[in-house]
């Protein structure tokens, strides 16, 4: 085994040199911090450090499971993640199919640039835009919805609990759909042109070409990305939720990540916060493995 490894390193040393910075980054910033996982099983003591505290086992996990915030944070996180996946995952696929169907190259470049741009807006600026557009008094979107009699005259969309999830999900789709469509556009560009010719000879219209030629070509890409998204089913972005959060929408906006920040960092309960964060990671890993197993059994497509 050692001889084979040395032979492979000697043969492909250029490739290993290229990937070495990425490996070093992953080891330092992904695997290195895992040393602190033990904090979830110890009673943290400032004087003794991470490894010097008393070993308490599953105490903080049980504390979280028995707390009144357990089901609330778990439900809020799952609801936001579920609707983000349901609405956000198909959007880049549809957008990629639409862009790929454009025949005018100049129009195609303009559309691509227009849909990519929102991705480069920072989260802070994005939430500030939402606050301006959804302002109860001067917001353009709020006034439009009010004029269309879709909302009441005194509604505050950022402060209404029932509106928090739609605002979060729709703004996320608008911001990321264009960027996420890049990988699907790349997959569509590799479709053999002879397949289109054969479909047209058989009398297929544009919609039938999409169904029978383009979608089958990107199914492996769709499945792989869906599996990877399932691994983040409970990983709601902390920054956006935290910035959109206020006392009015707190019952539906307090997710696991913000709870960890509030109770662990602001509250000083570092061991408890680490336990909650570790629980979140384990659940995500479980979803990832289950989705990967189902995909491998049904479609013979998997990450490993």
Describe the structure.
This protein has a domain at 71-115 and 164-298: MetI-like (MetI-like fold). The mean pLDDT is 85. The chain starts with a helix and ends in a 6-residue tail after the last helix. The chain has a two-stranded antiparallel sheet. The chain has 15 helices and two strands. It has 304 residues and is mostly helical.
- Indicate the mean pLDDT: 85
Secondary structure: helix percent: over 70%
Task: Output the CATH homologous superfamily of the domain at 71-115 and 164-298.
Answer: MetI-like
Order of helices and strands: HHEEHHHHHHHHHHHHH
- Proportion of residues in β-strands: under 5%
The helix tally amounts to: 15
Give start-end ranges of low-pLDDT stretches.
none
CATH architectural designation of the domain at 71-115 and 164-298: Orthogonal Bundle
Q: Could you give the distance between the termini? A: 21 Å
The count of strands amounts to: 2
Record the strand order, biggest sheet.
1-2
For the record, what CATH class of the domain at 71-115 and 164-298 applies? Mainly Alpha
Shape: globular
Radius of gyration: 24 Å
The third-level CATH topology of the domain at 71-115 and 164-298 is MetI-like fold
Backbone structural class: mainly alpha
Largest sheet: 2 strands, antiparallel
